[in-house]
């Protein structure tokens, strides 16, 4: 059974940092993983991708977060991270970990101006 559990969200001032974690079970630790976010009143959007280890573990980012966010993986812990720096109020939303049809419940990030 696949399970994704996010953590690390919270309230932070603009310019601050947070690190989100996604612990995966029932999925190979080398699999490609995604982070999405959904802002209030908006559709869910793809924020960051890390490809499978066998595909090179390549990271890709939405233009809106490029240079500020970093996705990474610790295969020994079956965990994917999203390091978010220089946060902006428009980064506010619920952040979800995703693999194909599987989603976590999300973790809320609120950035105050």
Give a structural overview.
This protein is mainly beta and 113 residues long. The chain is 0% helix and 52% strand. It contains no helices and eleven strands. The strands form two sheets. Strands 2, 4, 5, 6, 9, 10 and 11 form a seven-stranded mixed sheet that branches. Strands 1-3-8-7 form a four-stranded antiparallel sheet, with no helix packed on it. The protein is globular and about 40 Å long. The model has no long low-confidence stretch (mean pLDDT 95).
Keywords:
113 residues, mainly beta, 4-stranded antiparallel beta sheet, 11 strands, 52% strand
Indicate the topology:
Layout: E1 3-7, E2 10-13, E3 18-25, E4 33-38, E5 45-50, E6 59-61, E7 69-74, E8 79-84, E9 93-99, E10 102-103, E11 107-112
Parallel strand pairs: 2-11
Antiparallel strand pairs: 1-3, 3-8, 4-5, 4-9, 5-6, 7-8, 9-10, 9-11
Q: Please give the radius of gyration in angstroms.
A: 13 Å
How many DSSP-defined strands? 11
Q: Helix and strand string, N-terminal first? A: EEEEEEEEEEE
Described by strand count, sense and barrel closure, the largest sheet is:
7 strands, mixed
Strand content: over 45%
